[in-house]
Amino acid sequence: xxxxxxxxxxxxxxxxxxxxxxxxxxxxxxxxxxxxxxxxxxxxxxxxxxxxxxxxxxxxxxxxxxxxxxxxxxxxxxxxxxxxxxxxxxxxxxxxxxxxxxxxxxxxxxxxxxxxxxxxxxxxxxxxxxxxxxxxxxxxxxxxxxxxxxxxxxxxxxxxxxxxxxxxxxxxxxxxxxxxxxxxxxxxxxxxxxxxxxxxxxxxxxxxxxxxxxxxxxxxxxxxxxxxxxxxxxxxxxxxxxxxxxxxxxxxxxxxxxxxxxxxxxxxxxxxxxxxxxxxxxxxxxxxxxxxxxxxxxxxxxxxxxxxxxxxxxxxxxxxxxxxxxxxxxxxxxxxxxxxxxxxxxxxxxxxxxxxxxxxxxxxxxxxxxxxxxxxxxxxxxxxxxxxxxxxxxxxxxxxxxxxxxxxxxxxxxxxxxxxxxxxxxxxxxxxxxxxxxxxxxxxxxxxxxxxxxxxxxxxxxxxxxxxxxxxxxxxxxxxxxxxxxxxxxxxxxxxxxxxxxxxxxxxxxxxxxxxxxxxxxxxxxxxxxxxxxxxxxxxxxxxxxxxxxxxxxxxxxxxxxxxxxxxxxxxxxxxxxxxxxxxxxxxxxxxxxxxxxxxxxxxxxxxxxx
Length: 611
Known about the structure:
By secondary structure, the chain is of the alpha+beta class. Helix content is 18%, strand content 30%. It has helices at residues 19-24, 31-45, 65-75, 127-133, 153-157, 218-226, 254-269, 304-319, 400-404, 428-446, and strands at residues 3-8, 54-62, 98-105, 163-172, 175-184, 190-192, 195-206, 212-213, 215-216, 238-244, 282-288, 291-293, 329-336, 341-350, 364-369, 373-379, 389-395, 479-480, 498-501, 506-510, 513-523, 530-539, 559-564, 567-570, 574-578, 584-590, 597-606.
């Protein structure tokens, strides 16, 4: 049976148990987002190899009657007064209690000294005391994903009674040592008899001074197994944390709770669910009452696949500065001018499929630093045609610490006012955020543009901006002409009919489908005659030529019809236009995904019989 230790204030003061929870402060994140972010961050920071992979699992289950007896009598048999955990028995129904277990493997576990006042051997990590006993974090640990060490308070918040059981296997003196200890948090301080207590409690094996230490060795492992916890194999290291009587914030049952955590893993950790050639960085596993719940698969999700695709393309560009992507993707280096410094790479994509769900993540940029968890989705200007844009910003490696220090305890924002900069020195965090927003403000003015398309020899003009759809109009006078340029409409008309493209090609939504619009005008022609206008679209190859033969299953551009400012003109292949004409006409084609297309237009003057 484990014994209770209640921490008293010392004569020199102390911190009450609410300190870690209060340090979290205000956040827009829900409880289960916070639980996922904090626990997964701790697991990732604890991976045994810098470039290694980990397994991360969340299991919720109702304990059996015997398991409930062991937990409530052998582990938490003694309860403190005036604390939330005092009401443990109110959460037992039909002699059973529910628990949530968060576990990892491929991590080093909670090793090092078990007492906070012991220095340990030179260079030895202090993971156990930092997680179980201390509040905050030592600056000697350096910069990892978490920079404060206070976010663990959310694990106590996840329990209705602020109660957790921590089990870990870590290497100690060359051997793997199992350790288990009970911890509570989130309580206020209180008086009992003539003493004042901080509200911090531990359950373990009493030492000579009355302070409890973790139960260690085979007995610790047997206890965890008897409670049904998922724990590492005997020859592996890792940590499992049991949240007793989990909270019902935003959910009505255990399956919904685990599903909410799985959704949070998709939203905030999708980069680690991508297979970059050797499998995902993190292997996720979620269960509720022994029933599996799907883990994150970003490339199969209609929204997150856009962020994931942008991330993969951006990563390729970072690894190879000469890498070029398809038309949907645009690379924008984000730099400061004084000093001339690389802050990171912005990669954004134009969605090839409209998101009918109206996701709140449309027109946002996922902000990333090491360790590649999403810090925040930064809203940016929407494009005028309504085509969603999704972006990813990856901070430069040497800027990682600057961005990390601008984050609050929950690591869910970049607050440039918190960035550590000298007086009158440029603020790299502010500069990066401003430049990201400005990039999309410019695009919203120019219109929704496609990405870094392929420059092709046959195109009349390729946008000098970050790229646009390719178009090549042919026939008499075939060329692209800017809107507002003199086209002869106001002066003497040339006798021969010509066709001119009037503006950049653009993407639009038509009946829920992405389409490409090509605006042009017919000029000249003998008054009283008419011209026959024909258009044709071809897929452009990487070399810039037209695709001569299409794969059997390939999606091809399809002519949708002719339009003017007044609406649909015709769906016929050939449009007859009387000349002279002042009407601007638009040819509309379907836009295949991940494809650049070239449109060719021709005019043929038709003689009209005169009496």
